[in-house]
Amino acid sequence: MNLALSIRMPPAELDLIDRAAAVDQRSRTEFMRAAAVSAAEEVLLTRKLVRMNAEAFDHFAAAMEGPATVSPELLRVFKRKAPWEVA
């Protein structure tokens, strides 16, 4: 089931959205839906509150203040080329 959403915005902002949607070859609705969902995911992924008791925090702080260790898995990820770098 899909629900309707109505928003008011200045004409200049709507024109900007329409131009971007056209460049992306999507309808205004699809462009705005994708942009709103992406923005919502970004907010929820980057602003997560982590709660822990004092003992867990002390353990976490000690791990963060200690020497760094090399993770072979993470090292492999960092050595990979980005999709746009691959020929």
N-to-C SSE string, H for helix and E for strand: HHHH
Gap from first CA to last CA: 42 Å
Number of helices: 4
Tell me the domain tally.
1
According to DSSP, the number of beta strands is 0
Which structural category do the helix and sheet elements fall into?
A: mainly alpha
Main sheet? none
3D structure, described in words:
With 87 residues, the chain is an all-alpha fold. It has one domain. It has four helices and no strands. Helix 1 packs across helix 2.
Provide key terms for this protein.
single chain; 87 residues; mainly alpha; 4 helices
Structure summarized in a few sentences:
With 87 residues, this protein is mostly helical. The protein has helices spanning 11-23, 28-46, 54-65, 72-79.
List the helices and strands and how they pair.
Elements: H1 11-23, H2 28-46, H3 54-65, H4 72-79
